[in-house]
Specification:
Chain A is mostly helical. Chain A has helices at 2-13, 39-46, 59-71, 89-98, 100-103, 115-118, 135-138, 142-153, 162-180, 185-188, 210-215, 217-226, 228-248, 271-280, 284-302, 305-325, 332-341, 343-361, 368-395, 403-425, 430-455, 470-499, 501-511, 517-551, 560-580, 586-610, 624-650, 654-659, and strands spanning 49-52, 55-58, 75-80, 83-88, 109-111, 131-133, 190-192, 207-209. Chain A is elongated. In chain A, 51% of the residues are buried. Chain B folds into 3 domains: 2-159 and 404-440, no CATH class; 162-174 and 319-398, no CATH class; 181-316, no CATH class. Chain B has helices at residues 13-28, 32-41, 44-78, 102-127, 131-160, 404-440; strands spanning 2-3, 82-88, 94-100, 162-169, 173-189, 198-202, 213-216, 223-231, 234-238, 250-252, 255-259, 272-279, 286-291, 298-302, 305-331, 338-349, 357-362, 367-369, 372-380, 391-398. Chain B is globular. The chains are: A mainly alpha (660), B alpha+beta (441).
């Protein structure tokens, strides 16, 4: 009989029988939480291992990126007892799991242009043009938004207007947020068990929770067997509820390591699959995870923080033990520390401080600040180096495998390059320039990280088969990226050279032709950095060809990404040969190096925008406007330089002729 | 196989390289016209001009791929001697600018490298008094030599390589690989049940026959074959059917060969042409449409035998037999992203009594045998989640300059590092002595 009962349940899980009868547990009608998420609770929960995007990661990473994708921020600002407080991503996810009705009141979802919401009839009196919304606020327009999204989905992407694209993206994120509030739906699933029913013993307030059934499966089975027809009816209800709960538990969050070895079965189970696995495979880990979650839910609802702490710790222990046995938990704890350390943010802060210090150090009598500038720059570069190395260890890959990862690498190399050039040229004025370079690149890094959060929900990603080679990633990709870095830093030097032309002219008028020694030092630096960059760009490009020969059977295929690398090399060679042959002088060197900045950005981002070629893993969207601004800025710099040269030439200035 | 006419190698580059080689040798004599020419060929002006030209065509050739595809853009910009670039102005006025093509620019750059980077720098090297300067010039010379090796590798690849694919289902084997782009007309004895002797007409002999016709014959063939109306992309269609037929369509036996617009992805173009078969000693002409779409060859009688003629992608011999034992693919868990795809194959050397080898071919792990390299390129069916049997596509390349780029990168990497290091050291020494002078003053 017990086997028959199991089969009935399994059969029902597979969708053979009765209609859906399960209902999610209704929370208290007033959304509230009687306790704060203490640092201890957060620390326990954030280390929960899970599988997402093809890799095992801690809840901390998943929650951080989920929040970044939905709200463009790293904290949620909420009103609590009349005060505005900020909660972090893990606390927000815990609220989504254990207090979904409360979490629905959090203004999480960012809308970049609220005219999208006005178009579906939302009253926006208290909101700005770009604002965040809670699910509760959006309830009235959700249906209309989803209808619009379905209509837009049927259109070609190229045919969509800007507003339609924004509406579609917003609806997608809204759906994602709705899903987060149903994460524990399988744990909440229950059936009606009125007093006197065969399962009354396990029911609470006339409701029988499915996890409770799974936790006491043998006893429930015996009770149903001995209850005759009534037992069969309850078994049927349970089967239907399990089927519905299994479906409702389907999510991107896979919390349960499977029973087999890693080689046999790599995919972790979501909570819906875990429910089914308890019945079909008698999967112990699934049962323990579900019971721990149910216990945590009960403790959270009751406001019992101690029990909640114990239940969360049990949950982490169960999954961690199984994951360790499968050899999958190598870096999860370290990744939590990495995310919490925020090294890249620290680097950004240190670079900003270095810039301020470096600028002040140029004033008379503040020479001592020069040392602090060196220290702050070194500290920022150190934070980046540690952060990059840490990511390498977590990922088991060389420093650059994605577009996002190029930015911290370019940031640290650019800052170190600036320090090296400043040391060789004995020009402290180059230090603030290095700091600005670091700040700009780190801001770009934050933007790319957010794009990664939206597109894949992570910045540490798995690689497609063709990229699965650490040798070529660490040689070709690193060389090419260093070439980008040198090209961009040379651009920064050249842009400074061009912008400083009026200052140089004034100093020359006042103090004679030899006054602007630092300007000549800048010229020499530009040439040196371009030459230095050429070596890496050229070697990196040829290495890329050799890699292509090993992967695709040809050294060079004129693919856009290959051509992007080639045009950098060619332009660097044009600059160096033109300078060496006397075809250009100081101004020509600076202006052609400004063009190099555009060439590098074309190669770095521009070729990805074309949407063609074999290197399809580098595609990005939405960079077109930023690139247009960048190229326009370079055109303005060139015009600025040419105007100066023309003025100097017309005045018959020998320096103007010489500089050209 | 026996080729009727084979003109696919070396085309117009021989006269160019011969002339330039003679001029270079004259220049080496360091006298008269040769000396002047050497000055021009080895000048920085020519170097900058070639590099700037290559920069421009690389940029235009990259942008053009969005519109015309990789294959057409490669032919137009990088494998050409001259090209015309059309620019659309804001007032819809089109300006056509002639530009040098990739072949011309790379050839001139190679000469410039030899004359400037090797001969001129070499002379400076010999006359340099200072050992540090000798080392610097020597390093620069070697760097330029590395780039010459790289360009030479490209030239050899362009003219002497063969590329294609072998596509096999598990359990199937092959001794040939098939070109991705090139076509050939093949004639053989239709009745032969043993090894077939084939007469091949390569695409280069009929690719220009869009408006003309050309007659082919060979000893042993009891007929002449006239080929005409070649189209790089064409479809056979029923004449007078529901599909409107273009005025220039070629009609044969109720069917027409309707030319279509070229697809940007060249692999999607399917060539077609019209054939007229004239048996020897007969006034009869047998018309036939040859299309890359056809599954079976066109058959006819001539000289008392059955013959078959067809148009197919060009085929090349492999230096052995390859059999696909198993194709395996893996996705990253919970995603649709491929992590691994690989083919386990059995390789049997041609004309060898050695037992077959079991070899694994995966991404970044090709099989190399007798100058041929086989790479994991593709697999299928990719859109059928229930597929029980997979095919694996292996790209095959025979390239005599396969490893030259590796040699080049070692040469360039080492010599350029040395040159830059020496320059940096010299600069730092110079700065230090300048500072010393300033302090003493």
């Amino acid at each position: 009989m017990s086997q028959t009962l199991n089969l009935v349940l399994v059969g029902l899980c597979l969708g053979w029988c009765a209609p859906l009868q399960a209902q999610a547990t209704q929370q208290d009608s007033t959304p509230s939480r009687s306790f704060e998420w203490s640092p201890e609770l957060i620390a326990t929960a954030e280390g929960l291992p899970l599988q997402h995007g093809g890799r095992i990661k801690p809840l901390r990473t998943w929650a951080d990126f989920k929040l970044l994708a939905l709200s463009s921020g790293r904290k949620v600002k909420i009103e609590q007892e009349g005060e505005t407080v900020k909660i972090d991503a893990v606390a927000w996810i815990l609220d989504c799991m254990f207090f979904p009705e409360l979490a629905m009141t959090y203004p999480v979802l960012i809308c970049d242009d609220t005219s999208v919401l006005r178009a579906v009839g939302m009253d926006l009196e208290d909101h700005g043009r770009r604002d965040r919304f809670s699910l509760q606020e959006l309830q009235g327009v959700t249906v209309k938004l989803m209808q619009s999204a379905r209509r837009i989905q049927a259109m070609d992407e190229g045919e969509r207007t800007r507003e339609e694209t924004q509406t579609f993206d917003f609806a997608l994120r809204l759906r994602t947020l709705q899903g987060l509030h149903r994460l524990l739906a399988p744990v909440h699933a229950e059936i009606s068990a009125p007093p006197g029913s065969a399962v009354e013993e396990w029911a609470v307030a006339g409701k029988l929770n499915l996890v409770t059934v799974l936790a006491n499966l043998e006893e429930v089975r015996d009770a149903l067997q001995s209850a005759g027809e009534e037992g069969q009816r309850v078994a049927s209800d349970l089967g239907a509820a399990l089927e519905a709960a299994s479906l409702s538990g389907a999510s991107e969050l896979s919390l349960v390591p499977p029973a087999g070895t890693r080689t046999d079965d790599e995919e972790w189970l979501d909570l819906g699959e875990a429910l089914a696995a308890v019945l079909t495979d008698e999967h112990t880990t699934s049962r323990e995870v579900l019971v721990a979650l149910k216990t945590a839910q009960d403790a959270a609802t009751a406001g019992d923080v101690e029990d909640l702490q114990v239940a969360l710790a049990r949950l982490v222990e169960v999954t961690s033990q199984r994951a360790t046995a499968r050899g999958e938990l190598r870096t999860v704890a370290s990744e939590v520390s990495f995310q919490n350390a925020g090294l890249f943010i620290w680097a950004l802060v240190l670079f900003i401080a270095a810039f301020l210090s470096g600028v002040l150090a140029l004033l008379p009598g503040t020479r001592w600040l020069g040392w602090s500038t060196w220290g702050l720059l070194a500290g920022g570069a150190g934070a980046l180096l540690v952060g990059i190395s840490w990511r390498c260890w977590i990922n088991g890959r060389p420093p650059i495998t994605t577009l996002y990862e190029t930015t911290p690498f370019i940031g640290v190399c650019g800052v170190l390059l600036s320090m090296g050039v400043a040391r060789i040229q004995r020009q402290r004025a180059l230090l603030p320039l290095g700091a600005v370079f670091g700040v700009a690149i780190m801001f770009l890094s934050l933007r790319l990280e957010q794009l990664d959060a939206v597109s894949t929900g992570d910045s540490i990603k798995n690689l497609v088969a063709v990229l699965d080679t650490n040798f070529w990633l660490s040689t070709h990709v690193t060389s090419i990226t260093f070439g980008y870095c040198a090209g961009l830093f040379a651009w920064a030097l050249a842009a400074t050279w061009v912008l400083a032309l009026p200052l140089v002219q004034i100093r020359r008028k006042r103090h004679g032709a030899s006054a602007a020694g630092w300007h000549r030092a800048l010229t020499r630096s530009i040439y040196g950095v371009v030459a230095f960059g050429l070596m890496f760009s050229l070697v990196g490009t040829i290495l890329g060809g050799i890699w292509a020969n090993y992967s695709w059977g040809r050294f060079w295929g004129w693919d856009p990404k290959e051509n992007g690398a080639l045009v950098i090399v060619l332009w660097q060679l044009v600059i160096l040969h033109a300078r060496q042959g006397g075809l250009i002088k100081d101004l020509g060197l600076a202006l052609t190096t400004v063009v190099l900045g555009s060439v590098v950005v074309f190669s770095w981002f521009g070729v990805n925008q074309l949407g063609v070629g074999l290197h399809s893993y580098g595609f990005t969207t939405g960079a077109a406007t930023a690139m247009t601004i960048w190229h326009s800025m370079n055109v303005a710099l060139i015009l600025w330089g040419l105007v100066w040269w023309l003025l100097a030439y017309m005045k018959g200035s020998s320096s103007g002729k010489r500089a050209a | 196989m026996f080729a009727l006419i084979d003109l696919h190698s070396l085309d117009g580059t021989i006269p160019f390289w011969a002339c330039m080689g003679l001029l270079l040798i004259a220049g080496l004599a360091n006298r008269g016209l040769g000396k002047s020419l050497m000055g021009i060929l080895g000048s920085f002006h020519l170097a900058v001009g070639c590099l700037f030209g290559l920069f421009l065509i690389s940029y235009f050739g990259t942008e053009a791929q969005v519109e015309i595809g990789l294959f057409a853009a490669t032919q137009k910009y990088f494998e050409s001697w001259l090209l015309t670039e059309r620019f659309r102005t804001p007032l819809e006025f089109v300006i056509a600018v002639p530009l040098p093509g990739g072949q011309l620019l790379m050839s001139l750059l190679a000469l410039n490298l030899m004359a400037g980077g090797l001969v001129r720098v070499g002379r400076s090297f010999l006359s340099a008094q200072n050992n540090r300067r000798k080392a610097l010039l020597g390093a620069l010379m070697v760097t330029h030599m590395g780039v010459v090796v790289l360009l030479a590798a490209g030239l050899v690849k362009l003219h002497f390589s063969e590329t294609g694919h072998v596509t096999l289902y598990e359990g199937e084997s092959a001794t040939e690989f098939v070109s991705f782009h090139e076509w050939e007309v093949v004639i053989h004895d239709a009745a032969s049940e043993t090894e077939v002797e084939e007469w091949i007409i390569p695409e280069s002999d009929f690719a220009d026959l869009e408006a003309d016709s050309r007659t082919f014959n060979a000893p042993g063939l009891p007929f002449e074959l006239v080929l005409e109306h070649y189209a790089a992309n064409a479809r056979p269609e029923v004449a007078g059917g529901s599909v409107p037929i273009a005025a220039d369509a070629s009609v044969s036996d109720g069917w027409v060969l309707a030319p279509k617009e070229r697809e940007p992805e060249n692999e999607r173009n399917v060539a077609g042409l019209l054939a007229k078969i004239r048996p020897s000693g007969s006034a009869l002409t047998i018309p036939a449409i040859l299309s890359g779409f056809e599954r079976y060859p066109f058959t006819f009688k001539a000289g008392g035998k059955d013959w078959a003629v067809s148009l197919r992608h060009r085929r090349f011999s492999l230096p052995g037999e390859i059999k696909l034992l198993d194709f395996h693919r893996e996705l990253h868990p919970g995603t649709g992203m491929p992590r691994v795809f690989r083919s386990d194959v059995e390789w049997t050397e041609a004309d060898s009594s050695a037992p077959p080898e079991k070899i694994r071919i995966a991404m970044n792990e090709p099989l190399r045998r007798d100058g041929h390299a086989l790479f994991q390129a593709n697999w299928g069916p990719q859109n059928d989640p229930d597929a029980q049997r997979f095919y694996s596509q292996l790209e095959v390349a025979r390239n005599p300059s396969d490893h030259w780029p590796t040699v080049a990168v070692i040469i360039i990497g080492l010599s350029l590092s040395l040159a830059l290091g020496l320059r940096l050291l010299a600069y730092m020494r110079q700065q230090a002595s300048r500072r010393l002078r300033e302090e003493q003053a």
